[in-house]
Design brief:
Blueprint: E1 23-26, H1 35-38, H2 40-55, E2 59-65, H3 87-98, E3 105-111, E4 113-114, H4 119-126, E5 129-134, E6 142-143, E7 145-146, H5 148-160, E8 169-172, E9 178-179, H6 180-187, E10 190-195, E11 203-204, H7 209-212, H8 224-233
Parallel strand pairs: 1-2, 2-3, 3-8, 4-7, 5-10, 6-11
Antiparallel strand pairs: 6-9
Domain NAD-dependent epimerase/dehydratase: 31-118
Pfam family, one: Epimerase
Protein name: NAD dependent epimerase/dehydratase family protein
Length: 238
């Protein structure tokens, strides 16, 4: 049981007792395991749709991932080619495809690196130093990040918008990518380097023009010190 939560829900459980609402937020999903485990993302998405119908919701916000996209050195918008590089991204893409035309309205959020839930800040919280890969230009990876406060603002905005204006797919991240080395330095953690392996991505940045046409991102999730400061304030980093 989760502290403060007295209800554990499993797929297939009765939903008739759930209260009415206008939106369902489906952040659950499988992030590791074999194909069968990762395909759980599809069944969970369909379950969220079932819950939404029972609750009278007119939209479901599903957690997808930037991992569905093909690599690109330029910011990637929602019309870009999808060519996942790993099994997780492929599973999220299958989930999106299963939701096409779903009722109520299904909105797939292609989310960037959520600060604190990503591997880097988790490693920093547990280690005195971390190692980043370094590319021939002397820099480390650059990624689109998302603060928890920004994610909360996005969700709040999306549940208030008229459903008629909701897109099927929406990139969710900060307005500009962040250098991972800047995040490390903002924590004061030690930083070591190793050469980037063949095929490593120097940049994974999401174009959030569609999102910012719907709402203002505040905070914009672009400042390394602010990202780290927020994570410290919620008690997840020393």
């Amino acid at each position: 049981m989760v502290p403060g939560v007295d209800q554990v829900f499993e797929v297939g459980d009765d939903v008739d007792y759930l209260p009415q609402c206008n939106a369902v937020l489906a952040l659950w999903g499988a992030v590791s395991g074999g194909e069968e485990a990762l395909n759980g993302n599809i069944s969970l998405a369909c379950e969220a749709q079932r819950i939404a119908r029972a609750c009278g919701a007119d939209r479901v916000l599903h957690a997808s991932s930037a991992a569905v996209y093909a690599p690109s050195l330029s910011p990637i918008d929602e019309t870009a080619e999808c060519a996942p590089r790993n099994a997780y991204g492929a599973a999220k893409l299958r989930m999106e495809q299963a939701l096409l035309g779903a009722e109520p309205k299904a909105v797939c959020l292609r989310i960037g690196n959520v600060a604190g839930a990503d591997g880097l800040l988790s490693a920093i919280a547990d280690n005195p130093s971390v190692t980043l890969i370094r590319f021939p230009d002397g820099r480390g990876p650059v990624r689109s990040y998302l603060q928890l406060a920004t994610m909360a603002r996005v969700v709040d905005g999306l549940v208030r918008l008229p459903v008629s204006g909701m897109p099927d797919i929406l990139n969710v991240a900060g307005t500009a990518p962040v250098a991972m080395e800047e995040l490390v330095r903002a924590t004061g953690c030690g930083l070591d380097w190793r050469p980037a392996p063949r095929g490593a991505l120097p940049v994974m940045a999401l174009d959030v023009g569609r999102l910012t046409s719907l709402m203002t991102l505040d905070p914009p999730s672009t400042d390394a010190a602010e990202i780290v400061g927020e994570w410290r304030r919620i008690g997840q980093m020393p």
